[in-house]
Amino acid sequence: MYPEYILTLSCLDHRGIVLRVSGFLAEHGCNIIDSAQFGDPESKLFFMRVHFALEDDAMSDELLRAGFGSLCEDLGADGALHDAKRKPRVLIMVSKIGHCLNDLLFRYRSGLLPVEIPAIVSNHMDFYQLAASYNIPFHHLPLEAGASESAKLAQEARIIELLDTHRIDLVVLARYMQILSPGLCDALKGRAINIHHSFLPSFKGARPYAQAHRRGVKLIGATAHFVTGDLDEGPIIEQDVERVDHAMSVDQLTAIGRDVESVVLARAVKWFVEHRILLNGDKTVVFS
Amino acid sequence: MYPEYILTLSCLDHRGIVLRVSGFLAEHGCNIIDSAQFGDPESKLFFMRVHFALEDDAMSDELLRAGFGSLCEDLGADGALHDAKRKPRVLIMVSKIGHCLNDLLFRYRSGLLPVEIPAIVSNHMDFYQLAASYNIPFHHLPLEAGASESAKLAQEARIIELLDTHRIDLVVLARYMQILSPGLCDALKGRAINIHHSFLPSFKGARPYAQAHRRGVKLIGATAHFVTGDLDEGPIIEQDVERVDHAMSVDQLTAIGRDVESVVLARAVKWFVEHRILLNGDKTVVFS
Amino acid sequence: MYPEYILTLSCLDHRGIVLRVSGFLAEHGCNIIDSAQFGDPESKLFFMRVHFALEDDAMSDELLRAGFGSLCEDLGADGALHDAKRKPRVLIMVSKIGHCLNDLLFRYRSGLLPVEIPAIVSNHMDFYQLAASYNIPFHHLPLEAGASESAKLAQEARIIELLDTHRIDLVVLARYMQILSPGLCDALKGRAINIHHSFLPSFKGARPYAQAHRRGVKLIGATAHFVTGDLDEGPIIEQDVERVDHAMSVDQLTAIGRDVESVVLARAVKWFVEHRILLNGDKTVVFS
Amino acid sequence: MYPEYILTLSCLDHRGIVLRVSGFLAEHGCNIIDSAQFGDPESKLFFMRVHFALEDDAMSDELLRAGFGSLCEDLGADGALHDAKRKPRVLIMVSKIGHCLNDLLFRYRSGLLPVEIPAIVSNHMDFYQLAASYNIPFHHLPLEAGASESAKLAQEARIIELLDTHRIDLVVLARYMQILSPGLCDALKGRAINIHHSFLPSFKGARPYAQAHRRGVKLIGATAHFVTGDLDEGPIIEQDVERVDHAMSVDQLTAIGRDVESVVLARAVKWFVEHRILLNGDKTVVFS
Predict the structure, then answer these.
(1) How many Å apart are CA A126 and CA A140, to the nearest integer?
(2) Catalytic residue among B13, B40, B78, B232
(3) Which of C147, C186, D37, D55 is the most buried (most CB within 10 A)?
(4) ipTM, 2 decimals?
(5) Residues of D16-52 as b/e, b for ≥16 C-beta within 10 angstroms?
(6) What values do phi and psi take at C175, rounded to 5?
(7) Active site at which residues (chains A, B, C, D) (predicted)?
(8) Domain count of the fold of chain D
(9) What does the pLDDT look like over B215-258, one tens digit per residue?
(10) Is the peptide bond before D235 cis (omega within 30 degrees of 0)?
């Protein structure tokens, strides 16, 4: 087996980028396994993801990375080169509703989600045992509703410490019912995914299933999006819906919604981990 | 073949309604073919739809209707008794985008939609020939963007005339791009269906596919709802969605959306025609 | 809170059944909360499910049950009267693939699935710890591929013992990869649900995702059905599908299929537990 | 506006194909608008589709085509170079059920489906007027059920004549209820699309909705596939499903199925017309 990599890049669109990238790969003894690109006619940006194998034994990781750095510089591109076998390190945050956490943990243990999970953070104690059954350290960082800003920042300081200590690549808010401070949102730009339990932009904010019930919609949904300072307005990664009817109570909508939330969040995390998601302003490019 | 009827009723919920209705039917020589009911724990209203056959040759339509009138009075119910074989009379309104019109017309001609369509109304001439190919009178009632209120009311007076002349049961706004006056909305309460080309409550108002594109959603939808004076806020009858991705332009979203709109509107019209839709305040009960 | 019940019945269709049932309920001081019925024009059978509250303090459970027995006798009906609050007792069987088991267990613990699970049976040891983390006894009843018939019957004798000991209402084959003997299938008629990882009747038998991949289908599915002696031919309870494309490997289809399987099986189990599923020959009536 | 092209090619997979193609395009003054590729690890075949603009005024169509011919030769590839603006010429065949025909015609007229339709062929007269309303010549080529082989071949000879006369690129069997002869199937390999009204491989052959009803499935579907001599076994292009329930008759399944058929067939035709479908043995690659 040859070493495999995934490269992603985005830059201003112009003629010849694909040629440049494929030339770079050929020169470095690499064979394309999968490749996708997209040129956005509005933002004039070009996005690319290439999964490839390094088939030349004489080529080193260092030389490849140096070459890729030069390529990005030449193209004026924002680029990244990932070892395809390395498991990204994920920190999961949760409050008192655990179906998304449980779903992610099972995928993790059964090998469906190739990640490391060095820590689970919660402002409650509910899932202490679930974390223990997976041998994952559980950090109880309580934060009361209506806590002062300084209390919140103190709690976040401990989260940031965990991010650093464990060299976290991705934060997943798996029904974490606290709003992150603007500072933390900025620090996590493009590497924190939240699940919102509505089909955004419908039913932002609190109690979306109750809102959906009141409006009498015939489908309910869930949205996985990047966290930004602007609540529920972050770039959307994935959405899905399920049919409901007039006879269903808010509780029934909530129960049906849980399955949608779990699946939507799991897809978004998987795509992140496979380096399939690129940011395009307030939107995402997903090479699924 | 016995004559068949569909009864619908709604009233304050209390014990024994089903018993009363089934007793009434048995006493009048009727056999239940299909029955559905729903008690809303919030509004405390009870809704019922029964499809039945009148199997007693000695029982007349008049007696049955008289008995049903008494039943509704006793129950304090809002009720209706429909001859199941009678085709409701539908007036379709359209502007310059015709896929919903074309879809409804084909269903009508092929017998999938058991209605009479005595008139098509448009503020444009685009579908004059399509109407002609179905032998349906086409009424061109132009109304400029930004027309005065008096011009609008004059145009609507002609629409109202058509509603009366043709004893219209249902008005379908099949991409009719004019806002009806509050007076006409009131007059048509519960018998005018609009198709909005978004998954309401997301993207109300103009150009919803452009709004959806800008927000970067991963599914687009359509909503059939009853027309009310509050634009895009009427009771929702049916919704559906289709998957889209980052590479699609507004035009592509629009093309995909057309198929969703056609199907969603056709379902709503069919359910109306089959007397499956009951109003529950700002929501609908759909016995589908 | 009044005591609540769910009655189900099926009998030859004839005029007046709904009247008889609603009369019986009224006479016994019961108020209908939810009711659904279906008359099959082909089998000439009538099916009914009524959820009701016993609101008369003077009426006892014994009298109600006696009255229901007489009603069923009069109607020639196959009927059942369930205490709506009683949790059905479920035994789950699994082999080496555990996503359905994990999903059911989480729903059970979080209260989404109101059941008792007194035992998990497996022919392998893989989920010993998962069962332990839920405090559910795990019975390892190994059975080799190609075991003799007598070995198989001996293993099944121990399963039957568990069914009796724990007064099991429902057996769920959550990816249990052994074929039950005809005798056990008969004994479990109408109370054992299997999940098959294809959209039946496509891709019966072994390795359905590999079959689906070979055929190049564009959607893959899962089917929950009652277990019968005729493998993969039992009455279908629920099905769903997910989109796939040409670029996906068998492993990817399998991963996507897991989510569909979990949700489809969970729905079927929930409907069973809520007494929503009635057998109609080789088909099911599902009052969902 | 520059002239635009779409190239497709398939060949044995090996390192450097993308580089070769992108080099060819750069050398000929072409800029990639959209590009997709797929390497099948099983068949070891590589597939590619590139949409590009010819931005060099000095480069002629002839030179570009010559260069592409050489490129394909070098790569041992099966390739095609399509003028992106040219509308493919489609012949539609239909019998007595017309929803797919009507749907395609409306998309054609409203510009959603950029094709020419020089002829409609039917073994019945039912859609003579519909064709006339679109100004498309209607060829009534009757063929009785149970016609002799010679009668069939004579009828097909007239079809072949139409294919030649009108230089047809694609034949669409839009519910054409005759089986094509093996000879005609061969002649049309990869350029005739059929809609089958089931989710293949379930319910091959006649009356699939009746088969689905008998089996009690909970979803019904439709499949668009390339026509081959092996009935209902051709490479699948697109499939979709819709939910049904136990209360629906065969007629209701059929009505619901019509909408699925129309949409599935329309997608398949659109993808063909956009040169998005490549054959991979008995399967398709669809760059959607």
Answers:
(1) 10
(2) B232
(3) D37
(4) 0.89
(5) bbbbbbbbbbbebbbbbbebbbbbbeeeebbbbbbbb
(6) 65, 55
(7) 232
(8) 2
(9) 999 999 999 999 999 888 999 999 999 999 999 999 999 999 99
(10) no
pLDDT of residue C210: 95
Whether the predicted pLDDT of B184 surpasses 90? yes
Q: Compute the distance between CA of residue D108 and CA of residue D130 in angstroms, rounded to an integer.
A: 13
Tokens representing B254 are 């629009």
First to last CA, chain B: 24
Catalytic residue among A40, A232, A240, A259: A232
Domain of residue B12, CATH code = 3.30.70.260
Helix (H, G, I), strand (E, B) or coil at A56: coil
Residue B73 buriedness (CB in 10 A; 0-12 / 13-18 / 19+): exposed
Two structure tokens written together for D142: 């009757």
Using CA atoms in the order B197, B203, B209, B210, what is the torsion angle rounded to 10 degrees? 150
- Asked if residue D98 and residue D52 are part of one domain, the reply reads no
Ramachandran area for residue D167 (φ above 0: left; ψ -120 to 50: alpha; else beta): left
Tokens of C165: 């000991």
Mean pLDDT of chain B: 95
Contact C259 A247 (CB under 8 A): no
Interface residues from chain D to A (CB-CB < 8 Å): 15-16, 18-19, 22-23, 25-26, 31-39, 55, 243
A204 Cβ partners below 8 Å, 6+ apart? A196, A198, A231, A232, A233
* Interchain proximity A38–B246, CB inside 8 Å: yes
The answer to whether the CB of A197 falls within 8 A of the CB of A100 is: no
The parent domain of residue D27 ranges over 4-83
D42 and D131 belong to one structural domain = no
What's the number of CA atoms in the CB half-sphere (13 Å) around residue D224?
Answer: 29
Query: Where a domain ends, among B34, B61, B83?
Result: B83
Pairing of strands B116-122, B138-140: parallel
Query: End of a domain among B83, B110, B141?
Result: B83
Residue C126, judged by CB atoms within 10 A of its CB (0-12, 13-18, 19+), counts as middle
Please say whether the beta carbons of D113 and B255 come within 8 A: no
Taking each helix axis as running N to C, give the angle between helix C208-215 and helix C250-273, from 0 to 180 degrees, rounded to the nearest 10: 120
Token duo for residue A32: 């394309």
CA–CA separation, B251 vs B257, rounded Å? 10
Residue A81 tokens, joined: 């080169």
Residues 6+ apart with CB under 8 A from D183: D153, D156
Q: Taking CB atoms and an 8 Å limit, are D216 and C283 in contact across chains?
A: yes
Chain B residues with CB within 8 Å of chain A CB: 38, 40-41, 199-203, 215-219, 221, 235-241, 245-247, 249, 280, 282-286, 288
Beta strands A116-122 and A138-140 are parallel
pLDDT band at D72 (very low <50, low <70, confident <90, very high): very high
- How far is B277 from B6, CA to CA, in rounded Å? 12
| Residue A150 and residue A16 in one domain | no
Average pLDDT over residues A3-9: 97
Alpha carbon distance C82, C101 (integer Å): 26
Instruction: Identify whether the C-beta of residue B117 lies closer than 8 Å to the C-beta of residue B92.
Output: yes
D51, D136: one domain: no
C95/B216 Cα distance (integer angstroms)? 42
**H or E element: which one contains A69?**
helix A61-75
pLDDT at B145 over 80: no
Q: Omega into D114 within 30° of 0, i.e. cis?
A: no
The answer to which of A221-230, B27-36, B165-174 has the lowest mean pLDDT is: B27-36
Of D199, D245, D284, Cβ closest to residue C199: D199
Please, what is the end-to-end C-alpha distance for chain D in angstroms? 24
**pLDDT for the residue numbered B110:** 85
